[in-house]
Amino acid sequence: MKTTRLLLSLMLLCTVIACQNENADPLDDKAKRAMKENNGLVGKWKIVEYLADPGDGSGTYQTVKGDLAHMIEFKENGQFVETKAPAQSSVPLFNAYKALDDKRIELIPIDKNSPSHIWFYSDLSATGVTLGYGCIEACSGKYVAVQ
């Protein structure tokens, strides 16, 4: 009788644990770690989609291929770091940023004789952000948080 109760108790415990896993947070571990790291814009971001627009507003987001997937980092101290992809120029243009408001940031160039550049951001969460690069035509990129 004790063996039967023990087996039933173990089966009940396994059932409870299995049900808890079904209701677990759908984010994977990597996304959870990124959510802990990125606080607002502060953190590392990798581009996953870019807006390809011919200039008439009909553009759509396209998946970024590996040789164009760059990363950017907004550090808490105002430093900006861009790690460019192999298919891009390796020359960094900006090394600092300043938040202007809740939708715009100013990128400060390394060359102090060059003008600063305004980027726009939207859809900011701990795991993603859309950055508009301030082009005349529509241009932006969708980024995901990375470690």
**Major sheet summary line:** 9 strands, antiparallel
CATH class (first level) name of the largest domain: Mainly Beta
Number of discrete helical segments: 2
- Category from helices, strands and their pairing: alpha+beta
The CATH topology label of the largest domain is Lipocalin
Overall structural domain count: 2
Unreliably modeled segments:
1-27, 30-37
Estimate the global geometry from the Cα principal axes.
globular
Mean pLDDT: 78
User: β content, as a range?
Assistant: 35-45%
CATH architectural group of the largest domain = Beta Barrel
Please report the distance between the alpha carbons of the first and last residues. Answer: 53 Å
Q: Which percent bin holds the helix content?
A: 10-25%
Number of DSSP E strands: 9
Structural overview:
This protein is of the alpha+beta class. It starts with a helix and ends with a strand. The protein has 2 domains: about 1-30; about 40-145, Lipocalin. It has helices at about 1-20, 30-35, and strands at about 45-50, 60-65, 70-75, 80-85, 95-100, 105-110, 115-120, 130, 140-145. It is built from 2 helices and 9 strands; from the N terminus they run H-H-E-E-E-E-E-E-E-E-E. Strands 1, 2, 3, 4, 5, 6, 7, 8 and 9 form a 9-stranded antiparallel beta sheet that branches.
